Amino acid sequence: MKTIATKRGVLPGFGLTMGYSVLYLSLVVLIPLSALLLNSTGLTWGKFWDIATDARVLASFKVSFLTAAAAGLIDAVLGLLLAWVLVRYDFPGKSIFDAMIDLPFALPTAVAGVSLTAIYSDKGWIGSLLEPLGIQVAYTPIGITLALMFIGIPFVVRTVQPVLEELESEVEEAAATLGSGRVRTFLVVVLPQLYPALLTGFALAFSRGIGEYGSVVFISGNMPMKTEIAPLLIMSKLEQFDYAGATAVALLLLMISFLLMLIINTLQHRLRKTAR
Amino acid sequence: MKRGFKRGIVVSLVLAMSMVTAACGSSSGKSDNSVELLNVSYDPTRELYESYNKAFSAYWEKEKGQKVTIKQSHGGSGKQGRAVIDGLKADVVTLALGYDIDAIQKKGLINKGWQSKFEKNSSPYTSTIVFLVRKGNPKGIKDWNDLIKGDIKVITPNPKTSGGARWNYLAAWGYALHHNNNDQNKAKEFVQQLYQHVPVLDTGARGATTTFVEREIGDVLIAWENEALLSVKQLGPDKLDIVYPSESILAEPPVAVVDKNVDKKGTREVAEAYLKYLYSEEGQKIAAENFYRPTLESLKEKYKDTFKDIKLFTIDEFGGWAKAQAEHFSDGGVFDQIYVPGK
Questions:
Q1: Are residues B190 and B323 in the same domain?
Q2: Is-annotated flag, keyword RNA-binding (chain B) (predicted)?
Q3: Could you give the angle at the alpha carbon of A274 between the alpha carbons of A167 and A172, nearest 5°?
C-alpha cells in the first residue's frame, strides 16, 4: 500500500517546488506565448490565411524546416559518433574535448555565423578549396544547414552520452560470444537502446534549428524564395512595425513545430517501450 | 542520469534568472545637480555621438553648471524605434529615417509635427548614397546604369530589414525616373534588374560592408557616404575607391525629442538643448569630422573637398516616407514583386 508521503517522494517541499514551477512556467513561457496569440487576434481569418499561404512565407518555411531537419539528422549521426568516442575510449585531452562539445551553447550565435561565413565563403580557407569543385557553401541552403549543425550538435551528444555510459559492454560481449558479428551487434543490440536518446537529441537539435536566427542570417545570403528563413521573415515584418503579421508567421511556425514535436515524442514513447 | 542533467539545467536557469533580477534591481539614483539622457540612435552614428556627447557635456556644464551624462544605444533603426515604442525610456531619438520616428509618434510618445520642431526638417546633418568599389575601379563603374551591366555583382542590404538600405533603393529609383522621363514602369524595371545583380542580401548596412570588404564578394557596394568614407579611412585607401554617381538622394537622418518620456523624467530642457546644439558650429564640425554632411553654410564651404557636390534629390520626390514605405517596402509592395513575380 502506498502512503501519500511515498507518492510525493522522499524529499519534502512538494507544494513549494510545484508552486514555483507553475509560477516560473507562466511568467517565462505561458504569458509570452499567450501575448503572441493575442497580438495576432488583430487579424481576421482571411488575412491570417493570406499570410499563411503567401508564396514567400511558404518558401521560407520550406527552407527552415528542410535545413533544420537535415542538420538534425546529420547531427544525430555525428553526435552518436562523438558520444561513442567520449564514452568508450580514453585518450589524452579527453576532458578538454568533452568540454569543447558545449562551446556552441556558450558562443554567441552571431559569432558562429560570422566565422563560418568567413571560412566557407568563396575566398575563405575551406570555401576556396570547394569552389573549384563547383560546391558553394556560404549563401546557399548548405551553408544554413552547416550553421544549424554547429548549433545543434551538443544536444545530440549530451542526450546520447549518459545512455551510452549506462550500456554495459558485457552485453555486447555476450552478443559476440553468441556468434553475432560487429555490425549485427551494433544494429541489433546497441542501436535499439539508443534510439530514444537519439530521437530526443534529434528533436532538440531540429527544434533549435527552426528558430535559429543569429548565426543563419550571416551565412544564408537571405535571398527571398531561396535562402530566406522564416525567423528572418518575422524580423522583416517587425521592421515594418507589422506586429500582427509577424506574430501570425511566428504562430504558424510554432504550431507546425509543436505538431512535429508531438509526433516525435509519441514515437519516442513507443520506442522506449519496445526497447525495454 | 538524464534526469539529473535536466535538473542541473533547471537549477542553473533559476540561478541565472535570480542574478538578472538582482542586477536590474540595483540601478543608480541621481542627485540634483546631475542629469542623465538616453540617446537612442542607429548603428553608424556610434563614433559621431561619442565625440558629440563629450562636447555637449562640457557646453552644458559651462552654461548651466549641471553635469549631464549621456547614454547611447545603437542598433538597426527600425529595431531601435520598436524598442522605444515597447518602453525603452529614450529622451531623444536620432534615427536613420523619418518613417521610424513617425511610427513612435503614432503610438503617442512623440507629439505631432515633430519634423518641424528643429531646423532643416529636424535633420542636423545629412548624407547621400554613393558607390564603394575595389581599388582602381576595375569594372569601370561610374553611374547607376553601370550597375546592371553584364555580370556586375552589387552588394546592398535588404531594404525590408535595413532602414538605411531604403535610401539606397530610392536613390536608384530616382535616378531611373529622371533618365526615363519620369516613367514609373521603366524605373521599376531598372530597380528590378539592379536587384537581380545582388548575390547576397544582408540584413543591415554593417553586414553588407563586411560581405563586400572582408568576404570580397561583389564588384560594388551601395553605401551611405559616411560609411564609405569611414571604410576607406579604416581599411586604407589602397584597397577601396569611392565613386560618386551623377545624382543621388539626400539622406536626412532626423532627430526628435520623445515628448512623453522627457515630460515624465523632467528632462525636456536639456534634451531639447542637446538636439539644438547639433546645429551649432561645434556640433556641425563634429558631424563633418565623422563624415556626415554639415548643414551649416560656413562649414559646407570648409569641408567641400570631403563631400563632393553632386545633384541631390529628396524623399519628397516620392511623396514622403509614409507613401514611399507603403508603395515600395510594405508586404506585397514593389520590392516584394521583384522576388515574387505575378503578385
A1: yes
A2: no
A3: 30
**What pLDDT shows up at residue B186?**
94
Q: Work out the average pLDDT over A186-212.
A: 91
**What's the CATH code of the domain at B80?**
3.40.190.10
Question: B-chain residues within 8 Å CB-CB of A224?
Answer: 201, 336, 339-340
B3 in a domain, yes or no?
A: no
A58-62, A124-128, A146-150, B15-19: least confident range: B15-19
**ipTM for the complex?**
0.71
Pair (B154, B92) in one structural domain:
no
* B285-314 pLDDT, tens digit each: 999 999 999 999 988 889 988 899 999 999
Nearest to A65 by CA among A202, A229, A224: A229
pLDDT digits (tens, 9 = 90+) for A117-164: 989 988 888 988 998 888 888 889 999 999 999 999 999 999 999 999
Rounded Cα distance between A76 and A64, Å, is 18
Please identify which residue in the block is written with the cell numbers 560570422. A114
Backbone angles phi, psi at B68, to 5 degrees: -120, 130
Q: Check whether residue B225 and residue B77 sit in a common domain.
A: no
Above 60 in pLDDT, residue A1? Answer: no
For the beta carbon of residue A95, count every other beta carbon within 10 angstroms.
9
**C-alpha cell recorded at residue B187:** 524605373
Dihedral (Cα; B91, B92, B97, B103), 10-degree rounding: 30
**Chain B closest-CA separation from residue A55 CA (Å):** 7
Same domain, B87 and B176: no
User: Is position B172 within any domain?
Assistant: yes
Q: Which residue of A has its CA nearest to B14?
A: A24
Q: Is the same domain home to B291 and B228?
A: no
B143 lies in some domain: yes
Between strands B125-134 and B293-294, the pairing is antiparallel
In the three-class reduction of DSSP (H, G, I as helix; E, B as strand; rest coil), residue B38 is classed as: strand
Most A CBs within 10 A among B80, B95, B160, B336, hence the mutation to make, goes to B160
Q: Are B252 and B20 in contact (CB under 8 A)?
A: no
CA dist list (Å): A257 to A65, A209, A261, B51, B62: 9, 11, 6, 48, 60
Angle between helices B281-289 and B46-64 (to 10 degrees): 160
pLDDT, tens digit, for every residue of B235-261?
A: 878 889 999 999 999 999 999 999 999
> Is the domain of B258 the same as that of B109?
yes
Count of domains observed in chain B: 2
pLDDT of the residue at A35: 81
Q: Among A169, A153, A131, which Cα is nearest to A83's?
A: A153
Q: How far apart are CA A220 and CA A216, in angstroms?
A: 6
Question: Does residue B7 lie within any of the structural domains?
Answer: no
Grid cell for residue A115: 566565422
* Domain A62-229 superfamily per CATH: MetI-like (1.10.3720.10)
Which set of grid coordinates corresponds to residue B309? 557636390
A10 DSSP 8-state letter: S
* Cβ-based burial of A45 (10 A; exposed 0-12, middle 13-18, buried ≥19): exposed
Residues B222 and B335 reside in one and the same domain: yes
CB contact B86 to A (< 8 Å): no
Domain extent at residue B76:
34-123+252-302
Nearest to A221 among B14, B103, B199 (CB): B199
Enter the pTM of the model: 0.80
Q: Are residues B81 and B210 in the same domain?
A: no
